[in-house]
Amino acid sequence: RTCTSPRSFEESILTAKDIAGRALILIGKKQLPPPNAMYLAEVKETLCMGCGICVDVCPYSARHIDEIKKVAVVHPSLCDSCGSCVAICPNDASYLRDFKSNQTIAALDALLT
């Protein structure tokens, strides 16, 4: 990256996560999930067709397509459990580990109160 003008804290964090994600792809080592991740996104490889839609929609650059297996791979240290990949996946291959569907209503209730 080149030098840029001063950024907000949030922009700096996102840039750092982006760069870290690119480094992880090159290094290829498994990473531990972030301690604040409530539900880590995962992929059911048997359902994934490797279309890459989840990769394109991920705001944290936490996914890539494994070129050998032709399936999506999640970088746990970058995933923020936002659920964008789950919502967009046409085959229901993406999911949030340990998330139960009845928790959606409870989460919405909490947001509205």
From TrEMBL:
Keywords: 4Fe-4S, Iron, Iron-sulfur, Metal-binding
InterPro entries: 4Fe4S_Fe-S-bd, 4Fe4S_Fe_S_CS, PSI_iron-sulfur_center
SUPFAM superfamilies in the record: 4Fe-4S ferredoxins
Keyword check for Iron-sulfur: yes
Annotated ranges, domain 4Fe-4S ferredoxin-type: 39-68, 70-99
One GO molecular-function entry: metal ion binding
Cross-referenced PANTHER family: PHOTOSYSTEM I IRON-SULFUR CENTER, PHOTOSYSTEM I IRON-SULFUR CENTER-RELATED
Protein name, entry field: 4Fe-4S ferredoxin-type domain-containing protein
